[in-house]
Amino acid sequence: MNKSVGYARVSTKEQNLERQIKALSKYVDESMIVTDKASGKDLNRPGYQSLKYGIGKLTEGDTLYIKSIDRLSRNKEQAKEELRYYQRIGVRVKILDIPTTMADIQPGQEWIIDMINNIIIEVLSSVAENERQTIRQQQREGYDAMKTTADGKRISNKTGNVVGRPKAAFPSNWNDVYFQWKNGIITATKAMETLNLKRNTFYKLVKEYEGKS
What is the DSSP code string of 91-150? Predict the structure, then answer.
């Protein structure tokens, strides 16, 4: 039997979930609303992960209701990938703040919601790419503004130290894949393959990631 589930999130324990729950309860039974009090910077949240793994996992034909797209993630690239994930498994996502996703669709017209979500994904892609370009430009401007040593190496204006090789970046889907690997859902080999990382880089990022936890 297909189910409808709501998801609400606030960033800190001090913030109140009541407004989101009240809005979602117009469409979903309150007992079917999953909540988190956690940052939206990554996906490693107990409530949200229960929608993807375990007995509460959303499956084909289910519907997920959220108040706004940033309840999935503040990261535009990550939010886009989550929408794509739900599309792949056949879960319809309805976003209260985007009325077109809330339309009552007759059987055979499901493509309308899919089309709307594809547009949202494209918009998120454009915004994410613009953010990446802005970050790269700021990094380049900062790099170009650094002083250089006699042999051409750059010196950090902040620390005065010579700038070495930049750290390996975390892939956009790191948190989701890391969670699956850490919980024994996939092997390390599968995780590396999914992340397109070499073994040394993968474990280097694991060490760095867990050091921050």
Answer: -EEEETTSGGGGSPPPTT-THHHHHHHHHHHHHHHHHHHHHHHHHHHHHHHHHHTSEE-T
Coil, helix or strand for 68? coil
On whether the pTM is more than 0.70, the answer is: no
Q: State the Cα–Cα distance between residues 99 and 113, nearest whole angstrom.
A: 11
CA separation for the pair 16, 108 (Å, rounded): 39
By annotation, the residues acting in catalysis are 11
pLDDT digits (tens, 9 = 90+) for 11-51: 887 788 999 999 999 999 999 999 999 888 788 899 999 99
Distance of CA 198 to CAs 58, 194, 209, Å?
Answer: 32, 11, 16
What one-letter code names the amino acid at 129?
Answer: E
d(CA 83, CA 88): 9
Six-digit token string for 23: 């809005």
Structure tokens at 121: 């994904």
